[in-house]
Amino acid sequence: MTISIEKTISPKKKPDSNSLGFGRHFTDHMFIMNYTEGTGWHDARIVPFGDIPMSPASMVFHYGQEMFEGLKAYKSSTGGFRLFRPDKNIERMNSTNDRLCIPRVNPEDALQAIEELVSIDRDWIPDQPGTSLYIRPFIFATDAFLGVHASKTYMFMIILCPVGSYYAAGLNPIKICVEDEYVRAVRGGTGYAKVGGNYAASLIAQKKAEEKGYAQVLWLDGIEHKYIDEVGAMNVFCVIDGEVITPALEGNILPGVTRDSVITFLRTKGYKVTERRIGIEEVYNAAEKGSLEEMFGCGTAAVISPVGTLDWNGKIVNINNDRIGKISGLLYYNLTGIQYGTVKDEFGWSREVK
Ligand SMILES: *Cc1c(COP(=O)(O)O)cnc(C)c1O
Question: Number of folded domains in the chain?
Fold first, then answer.
């Protein structure tokens, strides 16, 4: 694929790498490619970051035909950068596209677009410990048409943000509220796809949890409200009596790249990892018996996020005395080490771009 490049004539001042936060600052350039039925994807280009003109009738504004991905670039000691399993994100992008009737993107073109854009803005990759460059590819429907139908035109864009360490104050366990009323996804729905609509539908529960002083919600399954699904926008793991358990992928759970890496890493190290349904009752029973050793969420943003407190309709349990568990610590150290290139990558996950 040929990508035309128009460089900015007014580069922005880079933010202070000690106060980056998440998703607030954007780099100098962005990638755009258009899709037209009959022609396919065309006009791949990197241009200065800026606003885009859109018709108010664009289908994405009305019916939400939109998808996104999220991965990170990490500065490598040799001046280049590393991507963590970008092939998995691109594979998931196409699985989401299939679900939403969005045309597929050639995986090699998607990887080329990511790598060329990050290369052009490589001076924006922060180098303080724990910082990285967040990569946000997304696709949306652009037909100016109000009929309910899959769009015939789309835009695929990639934007980049330097992001701070998620754990500026250390790997602190979070307080979670179990959500009993609203659900995130049901089997047959879009729970396994990375779409904006899932997030729009989840905001109300997040708001409710925050009002009660909790960081995130623990989602229960959409049918029986009995089994745990995900924690906030992360996949969830429990360690009960030495066994690592995570909900099986049954269509309602997002197949996280971090989730897959956690499972593969732990199995390689000899841990017993089981993918199956886990009832919230089972979690509470284990907590009361003292056999719930650890619980944690995982995803690209935080990598590993230990859960310290659970509140299910006012019934509160404490996990591992609010401390980071052994497995959570081991995973955080090794996964971030592979991402930054400081731990040997025996899995071939880290892709170095010079
Ligand atoms: C993106 C996402 C995850 C985590 O996926 P990673 O590939 O590990 O970043 C988990 N749950 C939801 C709902 C997500 O959108």
Answer: 2
Same domain, yes or no, for 22 and 64? yes
Containing structural domain, residue 68: 4-163
Does 123 lie in the same domain as 200? no
* 230, 234, 339: residue to mutate for ligand 1 pocket, most atoms within 8 A of CB: 234
CA distances from 182 to 186, 190, 205, 207 (A): 11, 15, 7, 12
Task: Pick the range with the lowest mean pLDDT from 51-65, 158-172, 204-218, 338-352.
Answer: 158-172
Q: Residues 156, 223: one domain?
A: no
Atom of ligand 1 nearest to the CA of 71: 9
Q: Is residue 243 part of a domain?
A: yes
Confidence at 166, pLDDT banded by 50, 70, 90: confident
Residue 211, Cβ density class (10 Å: 0-12 exposed, 13-18 middle, ≥19 buried): exposed
**Residue at which a domain ends, from 133, 163, 193:** 163
Q: Tell me the CA–centroid distance for residue 116 and ligand 1, in Å.
A: 24
Q: Measuring from atom 13 of ligand 1, which residue has the nearest CA?
A: 233
Distance 236 CA to ligand 1 centre (A): 10
**167-184 in b/e burial notation, b at 16+ Cβ within 10 A?**
eeeebebbbbbbbeebbb
pTM above 0.90? yes
Closest protein CA for atom 14 of ligand 1 = 233
